[in-house]
């Protein structure tokens, strides 16, 4: 029995490698056979991952201002300026135009941004735009000649168990590559901003990796490394990346308009109440519909359970909130919803936030 299990395990490993085209085989002089390696895909993707050095000043609340004594007897400013010097990572996603994706928190307050490529070139860059709610920022390298970019992959196609590589500049050591699995999808609740749909991975992510690339074994960008959970400040196998599809939508709006125009359809959402909906485990439930809103005009009603948006499954309220919030104003979104035992579809046009302001916590 033990022999059969061992043989089955080896067959599974062989099959895994056989279906991962990015895993090459190199000769093993000791055995005369070959061993697997990820070196080819690493060589392919690492030129597009850069180090970012930021200098600038930010304004923050003065702790002394909170003290009534100091406010009354001293001329205490409400805010003070603080000098910022930080490092992080970024990903070249458009080599021709020099566009680099990174995290908002990497370049917040930046007045001078310097890019260092893998081959040691130091290039000036400017911040094209930042979006704090998604923690995405777009930079543009001033002289983009000779750059290599990383193609986008479809982060919606990721599954738990997929192999990924995390590439960045941890602790200022220089470019570093780690590997792991997609541990979970659709993680939320890491901040108060609300636009979260994190990919969780056990590929080592440490301070300095922020803004770096999460790459699949086809050499495609599937995420922007953003955060970790760690009691001691280092990697414990719980890292988070912004899905590439979300980052790409944000980038497109920033490049086109300089900012993100968030849409609304005039509903408030809540996660599915399973006790009240036996037999259904996923979906975003409509808690309220604002009268006269796009959702109202399209036919959505309180209690409807949205299960798909543009033919992609909707599992949670946060997922639908992200979908609508990142859609372009004027875009039509197809929603499939359950009302009682019946499933139906409708199309709702995304409106500017101000047009859906009558809704309770409109999304």
Characterization of this structure:
The chain is of the alpha+beta class and 363 residues long. It has 3 domains: 46-141, Thrombin, subunit H (Beta Barrel); 155-257, Trypsin-like serine proteases (Thrombin, subunit H, Beta Barrel), CATH 2.40.10.10; 263-356, Roll (Pdz3 Domain), CATH 2.30.42. The protein contains 7 helices and 22 strands. It has helices at 2-18, 39-45, 68-73, 104-107, 244-257, 294-298, 317-325; strands at 24-27, 34-37, 49-61, 79-94, 99-103, 110-116, 122-131, 136-141, 163-168, 176-187, 198-201, 213-216, 221-228, 239-243, 263-264, 267-271, 284-289, 305-309, 312-313, 332-339, 342-349, 351-352. The strands form 5 sheets. The chain has a 6-stranded antiparallel barrel. A 6-stranded antiparallel barrel has the order 9-10-11-14-13-12. Strands 16, 17, 18, 19, 20 and 21 form a 6-stranded antiparallel sheet that branches. A hairpin with a 6-residue loop joins β1 (24-27) and β2.
For the structure shown, list the relevant keywords.
disordered C terminus; globular; 3 domains; Thrombin, subunit H; 7 helices; 17% helix; alpha+beta; Pdz3 Domain; six-stranded antiparallel β-barrel; 363 residues
Kindly provide the name of the CATH class of the largest domain: Mainly Beta
Major sheet size, sense and barrel closure: 6 strands, antiparallel, barrel
Q: Which strand-content bin applies to the residues? A: 35-45%
Radius of gyration: 24 Å
CATH architecture label of the largest domain: Beta Barrel
Overall mean pLDDT: 80
Record the strand order, biggest sheet.
Answer: 3-4-5-8-7-6
| Structural domain count | 3
* Beta-strand segment tally: 22
Assign the structural class, choosing from mainly alpha, mainly beta, alpha/beta, alpha+beta, or little secondary structure. alpha+beta
Reading the helices and strands in chain order gives HEEHEHEEHEEEEEEEEEHEEEHEEHEEE
The best one-word shape is: globular
| CATH fold label of the largest domain | Thrombin, subunit H
Question: N-to-C terminal Cα separation, in Å?
Answer: 56 Å
Give the name of the CATH superfamily of the largest domain.
Trypsin-like serine proteases
Q: How large is the count of helical segments?
A: 7
Low-pLDDT segments, ≥5 res: 8-21, 355-363
Helix content bin: 10-25%
């Amino acid at each position: 029995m033990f022999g059969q299990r061992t043989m089955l395990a080896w067959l599974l490993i062989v099959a895994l490698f056989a279906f991962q085209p990015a895993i090459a085989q190199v000769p093993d002089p000791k055995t005369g056979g070959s061993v697997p390696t990820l070196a080819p895909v690493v060589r392919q993707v690492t030129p597009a991952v850069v180090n970012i050095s930021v200098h600038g000043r930010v304004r923050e609340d003065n702790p002394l201002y909170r003290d009534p004594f100091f406010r009354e007897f001293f001329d205490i400013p409400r805010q003070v300026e603080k000098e910022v010097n930080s490092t992080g990572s970024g990903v070249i996603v458009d080599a021709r135009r020099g566009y680099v994706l990174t995290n908002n928190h990497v370049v917040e307050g930046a007045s001078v941004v310097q890019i260092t490529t893998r081959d040691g070139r130091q290039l000036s860059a400017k911040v094209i735009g930042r979006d704090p709610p998604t923690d995405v920022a777009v930079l543009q390298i001033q002289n983009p000649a000779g750059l290599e970019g990383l193609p986008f992959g479809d982060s919606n196609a990721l599954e738990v168990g997929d192999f990924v590589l995390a590439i960045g500049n941890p602790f200022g050591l220089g470019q570093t590559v780690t590997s792991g699995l997609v541990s979970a999808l659709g993680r939320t609740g890491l901040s108060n901003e609300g636009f979260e749909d994190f990919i969780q991975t056990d590929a080592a992510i440490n301070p300095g990796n922020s803004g770096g690339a999460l790459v699949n074994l086809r050499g495609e960008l599937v995420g922007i490394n953003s955060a970790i959970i760690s009691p001691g400040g280092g990697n414990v196998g719980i890292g988070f990346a912004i899905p590439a599809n979300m980052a790409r939508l944000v980038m497109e709006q920033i490049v086109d308009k300089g900012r993100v125009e968030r849409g609304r359809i005039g509903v408030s959402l809540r996660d599915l109440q399973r006790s009240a909906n036996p037999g259904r485990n996923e979906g975003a439930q409509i808690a309220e519909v604002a009268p006269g809103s796009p959702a109202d005009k399209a036919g959505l009603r309180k209690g409807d359970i949205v299960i798909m948006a543009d033919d992609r499954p909707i599992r949670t309220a946060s997922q639908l909130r992200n979908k609508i919030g990142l859609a372009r104003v004027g875009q039509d979104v197809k929603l499939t919803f359950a009302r009682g035992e019946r499933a139906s579809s409708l199309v709702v046009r995304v409106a500017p936030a101000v047009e859906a302001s009558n809704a309770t916590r409109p999304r």
